[in-house]
Structure formats: C-alpha cells, structure tokens
Amino acid sequence: MKENATLFGLTVFRERPVPLASRDPAEARLMFLEHALVRGEYRTRGAFQEKNRQVFERVARLRDKARRSELLDSEAMLTFFDKRVPADVTDGAGFEVWRRKAEAADPDVLVLSMEDALSHDPGLSPAHYPDALKLHGASVPVTYTFDPSAEDDGITLSVPLLLLAQIGPGELDWTIPGWQREKLTALLEQLPRAQRKQLGPLPDLVDLLAKELEPFRGPMIPALARAVSRLCGVDVSEESFRADAVVPYLRITLRVLDERGKELARGRDVDALLKQHGGHARAALRSAAPASDWERKGLTAWTFGELPAVVTRRIGNLEVRSHPALVDRGATVDLVLLETSAAADAATRTGVRRLLMLAARGHVAVSAARMPPPFPSLDGAPPARGQADAFRALVLARGVDDAFKLAPGAPLPRTKAAFEALLRDGSPRIEQAARDWANAVVVTSAELSKTLAALKAASTGPSGAAAVRDIRSQLGQLFPAKLIEWVPFSRLLHYPRYLRAAQARLARAVANPGKDAGKAAPFTPLWETFLARYATVREQEAAQELRWTFEELRVAIFAPEVTTPVSVTVAKVGAALAALR
Q1: Per-residue model confidence as pLDDT tens digits over 542-562
Q2: CA of 127: how far to CAs of 86, 177, 217, 221, 462, in Å?
Q3: What is the number of domains present in the chain?
Q4: What does the pLDDT look like over 260-285, one tens digit per residue?
Q5: 56 and 131, same structural domain?
Q6: CA 482 → CA 136, 394, 403, distances in Å?
Q7: What DSSP line would sit under 448-478, residue for residue?
Q8: 478 falls within a domain
Q9: Is residue 94 part of a domain?
Q10: Host domain of residue 169
Q11: Is residue 511 part of a domain?
C-alpha cells in the first residue's frame, strides 16, 4: 500500500510505499502466500519451486486425462502453504530466513505431493487414470486423447499381437477406473424406461455395481447383466445393453501392434479386430514362443509333475500367460499350452480321461467289448464302420467320465498324487458305469427301431400325416448327430418312455387324426415359440430344463397312460416359457 502526507497544504511525500505488514500483518501474509508461492510471482533460491512445477505438470496431465479443462485448484495450494509457513512470515525476506532453517530440518517441507495438489478434489486420483492396464498378466500401455472431434477420442490400448490371442470378445468393453461409473450409468440409461424404474435410483445402483464388478476379468456386458439381475431382483438380459451406443470416448480404441511394435490395425470395433487378427495372433504366438517344458507329445502316463492352471513366459519383451492343457490324441496325450483357461479346462478334461483309461486298461478293455452299436439312423441308412467305432468309443468315454466323476465343472487333478487317488477311487466303478450306459443305449435303440417302423407303416396312408410329420421332427430334436457326447445319463433313461408315448400317439392319430390335431392345438404354438427363443435366451440351464419338460408335456397330452414323473400341464409350461429370460 501507499500513503500521502501534507504540511500546511504543502505535499511532504506522495504515494510512499508503506509495508502492509505494519498495518495488517494477516492480510500481508495472505497476499504473500497467494502471489509469491501459489501464483509463483516470487523467485527463491529454494529447490521447492522447481519440484512443485513438476508436480503441477503431472496434475495438468491428470486433469487432461480426466477431460477437465479447469486450472489447478489454487485453494489446495494455499491450504498447503498456509499450514507450513509461520504466521509471522509476511514478505520475501522473512520467508527466506524461515525457509533456510526449515529446509535444513526437512528438505521437502515446501514440496507438494500429488495428494496435496488434489486434496480439494479427492475423486481425481492417478490410480483412476493409469498409464497402463493389466491384461492377462501383461502390462498394456494406455494413451489418452481429449478431443471430441478425433476418431481416437478417449483411451487407446496398444496391444501386442501375441497378447491378442488371449483376449476374448467383450473383454475390452470395460474402461479405466476413472470412467467406470460414468460408463455404467450410460449403459443403465439405455434400458427401457419401464425396466429402468424397477432398478431404483441409478446412482445408488452404480455405487453397488462399482464395488462388485471387477473390470477386465471376462466380458463386461454378461457380468453387468448378472450383477444387475442379482442386486435388483429384476431379469435384465445381455441384449438390453448396447456397449456400442455409449459416447465414443467411453469405448476403448484398440491398437494392434506386430512383433516390432508397428501398428497393424486400430479401431473401436474391438470384436471385429479380434476376429480379423485372432488367427494370425495365435499363429504368431505359436511360432514366436520358445520351446517349453510344458509342451510334450505322446504321453501315456502322468510323468510331468504338477499341472498348474497358468504359467508365464517371456516372449520377446512381453510376459505372456498361457494355460497348460492335456489334449487327447487317441492312444496318447499331448501336453500343450493354450491361450485361454476355458480352452485348457475343456481339453484337459478329455486328456485326463485318456490317461485314466490307459492306466486302467484292464477294466477298459472288458467294457469296450460290450459297447453297443449306434442308434438306428432316422433315415434308415446303415452307419459307416468309422461312425460305429466312434459311437462305441463315445459311450465308453461317458461311462469312464461317470466312474471318475469327470463331469464338466468337476475339479481336475493337478498333481500326480491327485491323479493316482482319482485312479484308485474310480477304477473299480468303470465296468458298472460302462454297462449302465450300454444298457441305456440298447433299450433306447430298441424303442427307436419300433418308432421308426411305426412311422414307416403310417406313412403309406394319408391318415395321421400331420402326426407323422410332427413325430419325425420330434425324433430329429431328440437324436441330434452328437447326442451321446452331451446328453445326461439320467435324461437318456427317459428316452424309451418318450418313444413309447410317440408310438401310442401315432397309433391313435392314424385311427382318429382329427382328435390328434385337437390335442396338438395347444401344444404346437408353445413349442414353436420355445424353439424360436431357445438359442437367444440368457438362462440356458432353465431353457434346457424346459426343453425336457416339453417332452413330458407330449407324453401327458398324447399318451397319458405312459405316465410322467411329475405333473405337467399346458398352463404350467406356458407360464415357465413366459418367465424364461
């Protein structure tokens, strides 16, 4: 501040500087902190200014990542210096005296940390806007573009071709932690209004989802649909969400790099890029990978020690996670590395079965001699020799799976000790389990032969033609080409009853086609609706169970004397179909 003075009307001095500290020391200190230290208008010999400048640059980059154009929060900086600089420091001279003593005791007393600079904005954290993401154990660089007009506005992941083979569809629908809540909100807002109202306040739901969901662990949309359905008690299908409809910057741009770091492709349609370059990626991974202890051919026994779920190898500059698997080659097993855990588990289940069969070859040989021929062909053609052998091998394999409890989802042995324990427990059960499967196939084949013969006889006349067509279609659904590979044993035991009911229906339809048509009237629309929806429903287990309920409904409607294990009606099946999601 400045002052003027006069004496008897004469000017003594004009605009003479007056130290503010002498009049208002608190205001003088505040002005010094704000102008000298916060705004940087004061130059000091202390190193803290340069260090703080570097912090300011990092904060500016972070704000740019977060798509925030506002300047650094001066309040946070003022708070920082106010806590450290004594109350009696009001100018540069006093500050320098204090600084030298203070820095002698603590060299960083005036050095800002990122936490200090962001103290008034706790939501802005470097961890929320990382420079790299972990994908399948590998660190993938993340770059940021804040330009709504740019094609790569948002984040770009630069993924080596070798890593691309391990990324599955939908896995890159996630985004960085800083935008995760925003993306969840955008996806939920796409839902139909009526359905959205059932979810309650979206901010509260987003809070729950953000805590529960783990980004980049499998595809995002199925995980989101399951979580919303569970948390809200409302059936929300995957198809309700459209990951490609959110604002562009919330969708990842994928940049695919070759072995030398050269860009091969880029774009936001990640699944299309995975399809386009996935085969090349798998081939590149196989050709670039060095020889591994996890790749052995022609194994006939468990001679390889432990079988871990995942191993990590360095290929070039990349740490690649692979999954050891046992692959059934018929008479032997190969130990290989596969790109995904799902592929490795599926292969290993059959590989373990082969090793068990080799180890228990005595029981297996006895059972193999008892395996039945294939089911009669629906078109009457005899099976080829190779098809018959393959069918018998599959029936035997299903018996072995039951003996050793190798159903999908069951734990697999990972050590030699666990394998040998499984071998001891299951070997005595092989012959009985294989016999049970063989008997079920024989009984089913006998009833199928009778049904086919009845259809052939009924086809010679016009009466019952509609029933003949429907039953042929039913048999096509009951006996697909690879039925024996997946049908549960407990379900196969019901097949003879289904076939006897079809035979009874056919006999009645030939005698009274009008009555059969009346019985089919309520059934056919439900069945056709189910077939149209079956492939797209989310609840596949419920859909499969309902599919068998339709077979029971056929029995109840067309041949009630054959009986069903549980009561089943058109109304019950219609309600179950309506509830299917």
Answers
A1: 889 999 999 999 999 999 999
A2: 33, 8, 18, 24, 75
A3: 2
A4: 888 999 999 888 898 888 888 888 77
A5: no
A6: 34, 10, 21
A7: HHHHHHHHHHHTTSSTTHHHHHHHHHHHHHH
A8: no
A9: yes
A10: 126-275
A11: no
